[in-house]
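pinned: reference chain
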Amino acid sequence: MLGKIPAGFLSTEEVDLLAYLILLYQEAFAFEEHKRGTFNTEYFPPHEMPTIPHEPWMKKNIRIPLGWMDDILKLLQEQFDSRNTNTPPSSYHSTIFAVEKKSSLLHLVHNLQPLNGVTIRDAGLPPRIDEMIHQFTGWTCYCICNLKSGYDTGWSDTSIDLKRHVILMFV
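pinned: its structure tokens
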């Protein structure tokens, strides 16, 4: 992992610090889907997603090629088993489709355009750090970001009808 850092990008001391932190907190990294988890709701309360008044939507999925069906079912079962996905108890159904990566692995893509259309804040805009930075005053933060992992690190507020079946992004 450290061998992928371009030469000169980090100083020797920074690479040593990174190696030390990775070794010290190795249990915090999940390289397999079933080892991933979510943030504790005691520290990170459920995310409230404000929306405008709207009707629930029921979008049809793009058909999955029959040759991929077994792989997709296995992928979905792994996500259910790891608790990163659950069965939605609400009336919403967004489009999901599969794409094949260069590595020949399949990846599920969730079309969140209907959700973006009813959220009060445009999800296409970058987050405004100045609105949330005061929470971290006086804290030293080190962060290695993986944008894919950020989508399923917490739960949505159960007081609204948009539940966990919609992937959430926490920044």
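why pinned: Confidence is low (pLDDT under 50) at residues 144-151, 158-171. The beta strands are 96-100, 106-110.
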